[in-house]
Amino acid sequence: MDFLRYRGRLMIGIVLLIVGVYLATRLVNAGGSIIAQVQKVSAIISLIEQAYVEEADLNRLSEGAIEGMLERLDPHSVYIPAKEQKDIAERDAGEFSGIGVSFIIQNELITVVTPIAGSPSDRLGIRAGDKIIEIDDVSAFGIKEDEVFKKLRGPKGTTVKLKIARDGVGEPLEFTVVREAIPISSVLTSFMLDDSTGYLLLGQFTATTSDELETTLKRLERLGLKRLLFDLRNNGGGRLNEAVQVVDMFIPAGYTIVSRHGRNDDDDSTYTSKDEGTHSFYDVVLLMNGGSASASEIVAGAMQDLDRGLVVGQRSFGKGLVQNSYPLKDGSMIRLSTAHWFAPSGRMVQIPYDKGRGEYYAVRYRNQGLEALEKDRVPFKTLSGRIVFGTSGIIPDSTVEDLKITNGTAQAIGGQIMISYARDLARAKGLTEKDNFRQFLDSFRVSDEELDKIPALAEAQKITYPIEALGKDREYVRTLIKSEIAQYVWNDRDAYYSVMMQTDPVVSVARTLFPEARKITSRWRK
Fold this sequence. Notes:
The protein is α+β, with helices and mostly antiparallel strands and 526 residues long. Helix content is 41%, strand content 21%. It starts with a helix and ends in a 6-residue tail after the last helix.
């Protein structure tokens, strides 16, 4: 028996030795050709399958190899697994099927932040602050965020039963909600700051962006819009063709909006304006920061180069690469950079990425290495001859820093302390949706005594909130609490932003710059 066991082990050893020599030979002989490199990767996978100490997940290995290859190209060429691609496709299409609420997990319960206007939840009367305690007769206590999506989303026309706890209502409320196609809005909020100044926050560029924007602008125009604050801060981009259509709304026909150039002729395109500038008669100030990227940079770059709008805020991200999507058989996707895009003046905004992804993102997210970008930036001219720069993002015409808060305040916000306290204050003061919002906006103020209670509330939730942090962020916290009260009482996200924008430092400065915006847009006035 021992002899047979030894002979078996010997035979296995000989086989593995032969395989190892064979694979090693393949690795040594792999050259620079595509076939040789494919053989090299295949040999490594085979070696792992045959000789690795544990059984390996080959699907995971192959996905890792793909990710590694793309990472060596540039920061924006990526592999998207099949399970992630479905969610991305929904966001890009601008809709999904569900009940229509945005939510947070607070104290291990699903808490409604706001129902989406016109959604099934909105029509049934589900409100901000409602707590979903059961879904289809199953307790939702302790549920995780990804599980909420699985339970609340589903095929159009199907139903989901909700049991909801509402402050001030003794017994839980029960709703049977029929799932519908829920639009994912690009326009996050829009309203009039005063009789002639409109504010519009655009969060992303999806298939519905230009249609949403057209509807929003017409509504604001009916309300007296003469000056527009167009907020693109933290807009990470999206569809290039939608960015082109957005610019086209403000520019007469025949002007270059953006061009793209790659290695292949098929990747070369120039996009020009087609409309007659349906919204070209008022002044525009665009707001940007380091989170503004890609399609939002196309819009800002075109508006700046064509002297159609003033750009205010901070330097944008600097993403000037165009990706094409290539679907794979298993439902996964590769997004491969195939071209650079250029603003109308001819400038390319892409910041360097030759030192790898770590250095690339350090430049933007930690503001490291910006001095080098300043030295290397290349000057270009707008239509009127103003100097703008390339190779380092969109540099604003007027730089204004975003408000920065302390870590202590950020932790208190993350722990939902402000939301809970705002709702307690709203109930204590007896505020209801029947109250006049405009009067609230103009005159309501959270007192110092009320603010001073927040650190103790945070401590009760085991969140450390130093009194010094509250002192530094006092006016911001005051505004934030007021905003959360507005959201809760009027069940309206526009109400929330209407309050927040009253003290936003970038908005405050931008509102003073409309005379400057009018000067640079004089060429467009007949």
